[in-house]
Amino acid sequence: MALVLIPLFQKFLAEEQNFCTDEFYTEIYWTAVAYSLWKIGHLPQDIKEKALDIIAKGAHEFWLEIDSKALKQRQKVLDRLAVQLQSENPKPLKVRKSKTKREPHFKVGDVLAVKFENEYGAIFLYLTWINHRGKIEYHLACTRLFTKRKKPTMEQFLNSKIACRKDNTNFGIDTDCWFNHKDLGLLLEHLEIIGAVELYPCKLWTLAPRGTLEDIYEEITDEPRIGKLRLIDTYELVKDIVRK
């Protein structure tokens, strides 16, 4: 073909043998394909010729078994379609460009150093998910670790404190920075992976939508609320160290 068809039609044409089981369904298949491509202004010459050859044979006699008037009605449709296919569509439908599949910025278990103006914090990604619009969402847990000038080490991260409580056998993480893909992408120059861990099962105990570096800073420095916010050693959440 002179034209590279859009992916949807490539898949559709690959299923030709499943649709074209006899002459009747072949007529329906190729005229429908040709008309659809004409509607969007992308009708390849070989498909146009295929459809016109089928139309030239006339509507299949099986239409009479559907209804006594169906054959004549179908023939009128085919005659009109033949004229359309041999002319340019003056108002083709616009085809939306397929969106590039987004790759996540980070993976669950990644431990990140966060660079602020004169110090670093340490956070980790404990949940990602795809929302109803197909967008990637990230939930970052913030430890209470701060280091001056130098980024924190994995050892410092493991020995830090984090707001967390126990929910039966699971941990309920009581600190959350919930970012969408776009907002987190704007902060990448401030984030660096320093390692990765495998976590014990954790639950989202709190949901806190965030969008800026200042939001992360405030979450790290948030003072424990007596009776509501408990600090534990971060290493208690870690089942294994995947990468140092």
Q: How many alpha or pi helices?
A: 9
Described by the principal axes of the CA atoms, the overall outline is elongated
- SSE ordering: HHHHHHEEEHEEEHEEHEE
Main beta-sheet annotation: 6 strands, antiparallel
Query: End-to-end span in angstroms?
Result: 52 Å
* Overall number of strands: 10
Q: Please tell me the overall pLDDT.
A: 86
Radius of gyration: 30 Å
What is the percentage of strand-forming residues? 25-35%
Helical residue percent band: 25-40%
Which consecutive residue ranges, at least 5 long each, have pLDDT under 50? none
**Strand order within the widest sheet?**
6-3-2-1-7-10
Class based on secondary structure composition and strand pairing: alpha+beta
Structure description:
The structure is a single chain. The chain has 244 residues and is α+β, with helices and mostly antiparallel strands. It is built from nine helices and ten strands. A hairpin with a 2-residue loop joins β4 and β5 (170-173). The protein is elongated and about 80 Å long. It has helices spanning 7-14, 16-19, 23-39, 45-56, 63-66, 70-85, 154-158, 181-185, 213-221, and strands spanning 110-115, 119-130, 136-148, 161-167, 170-173, 177-180, 191-199, 202-204, 231-233, 238-243. The mean pLDDT is 86. The chain has a six-stranded antiparallel sheet with strand order 6-3-2-1-7-10. The protein has a four-stranded mixed sheet with strand order 8-5-4-9, with no helix packed on it.
